Amino acid sequence: MHDLTALILSASYVGILAIVFAETGLLVGFFLPGDSLLLAAGVLAANGDLNLGGVMGAVIVGAFLGCVVGYAIGQRFGRGVFSRQDSRFFKPEYITRAELFFQKYGWLAVVLARFVPVVRTLVPTMAGVSRMPLGPFNLYNILGAVLWGVSVPALGYYLGGLIPDLDRYILMIVGGVVVASVIPILVKVFQARRA
């Protein structure tokens, strides 16, 4: 946690924006500390080291812009990747499945993906691949960015004010949140494979 705290304090709001942008917009950003970053920044705001409004603003802008870039990448390059017949992981029929999925659940996927690590990195790109209309995508993108960018730092702020020395336990809390958010996805994947 000390390294994350030092990173946040040295990079400040621009660093938070850049990390959130990379995690939500670039496929290589899935390993970045999204939820732990937001919680830790909220705790630091509770300690008076950062301004909570500045943290929330940086997260919302970074998340929104990151998703726009992820969508553009998927729209520009995704179909070419999935059209190769020799690929084991990227098959043309996956485009059809993605299109049907985003027609049925697109708004929900874009909003709720914010709260699930790795999924928040993939959903914007897959929305672009499936050619989800850009207008609705951006509407749900901003809604998800605001919900995520306000609620998670606010939770860190609240807990940071409530529990002394919370920064010592933040990684355990984030681990619990990640496990709790991934379990429903794993259950759905397992059910789909059985079907």
Automatic annotation (TrEMBL):
Keywords: Cell membrane, Membrane, Transmembrane, Transmembrane helix. It is found in: Cell membrane. Residues 32-152 form the VTT domain. The chain crosses the membrane at residues 7-32, 52-74, 139-163, 169-190. Pfam families: VTT_dom. It is a multi-pass membrane protein. Belongs to the DedA family. This is DedA family protein. It comes from Deinococcus depolymerans.
